[in-house]
Specification:
Structural class: alpha+beta
Number of strands: 12
Largest sheet: 5 strands, antiparallel
Number of helices: 6
Shape: globular
Number of domains: 2
Mean pLDDT: 80
Low-confidence stretches: 1-16, 202-207
Oligomer: single chain
Distance between the termini: 39 Å
């Protein structure tokens, strides 16, 4: 049985939907009040890998690696206990990022960035296409092999290593209970920021889940008290402690 609890959304929609500007987020790392950075990790199921010839520096032709694969699935619970409705969330979010994809403005980083901002020294690839096929979301990435981390990412693909794709977006979530478990449904208005490449999807996803679980606990307790009960240092200690327990390290 699925039972909805009172919404944990803290966005005031009485004045209309909150406008999310992904370019501002990438430049500053600032997220609109009431929204949060939502990151989810999937194994990048490569469907096609090819070297295409493009015009390079000085008009010379050069090969560029492009990889295409499954990057997200709608209407199903992922490993972080979240679900993205296909029709109300994923399709509008994919439609909303098409202009930036066409402008070659959706750069991705190598491994998880520490915040929502884009760090140019960590860029490894460029997302060139994102589209839906039913509930499945596919993406095409161009590996930027002239950049140090792009070269590293290309090496992973060439050696057929498992590579993960981590979606980075901004929005809000609502919580429902399903058979005694908490599932978070991403709400309409969600906006994709970019997609990052990660080497260990399973562990990274688990650590992200730990961090976000502690974050939800802190937010709930702070809201109950009407003030901040936990300092940033206390929050960091809690996250680190949970990660150590998960990895069974001291």
């Amino acid at each position: 049985m699925i039972q909805s609890r009172s919404s944990r959304s803290v966005v005031d929609t009485s004045r209309g939907p909150v406008r999310i500007n992904r370019r501002t987020i990438l430049e500053t790392g600032n997220i609109p009040d009431g929204l949060r950075l939502i990151r989810d990790v999937y194994t990048f199921d490569v469907k096609k890998k090819e070297d295409v010839v493009v015009e390079g520096i000085g008009g010379r032709e050069e090969p560029v690696m492009r990889v295409t694969g499954l990057i997200q699935m709608g209407d199903s619970e992922n490993q972080n206990g979240r679900s993205y409705p296909t029709n109300s969330v994923l399709i509008p979010a994919v439609r909303g990022i098409q202009e930036d994809l066409d402008a070659r403005a959706v750069l991705g980083e190598y491994d998880h960035p520490p915040d929502a901002r884009l760090h140019l020294d960590r860029v490894s690839h460029l997302m060139t296409k994102v589209w839906m096929e039913g509930r499945k979301m596919y993406g095409e990435a161009e590996v930027l092999h002239r950049l140090p981390l792009g070269q590293a990412l290309r090496g992973l693909f060439e050696h057929k290593c498992r590579v993960g794709i981590s979606s980075r977006g901004v929005g809000d979530m609502d919580m429902v209970e399903h058979n005694g478990r908490q599932i978070y449904t991403v709400l309409p208005g969600y906006t994709f920021v970019t997609w990052d490449a990660v080497a260990e999807p399973s562990v990274k996803g688990a650590i992200l889940n730990i961090s976000e679980s502690v974050d939800r606990f802190v937010q709930t307790e702070n809201r109950k008290a009407g003030k901040a009960l936990f300092s940033k240092e206390a929050y960091d200690r809690m996250v680190l402690g949970e990660i150590k327990k998960y990895l069974n390290t001291k």
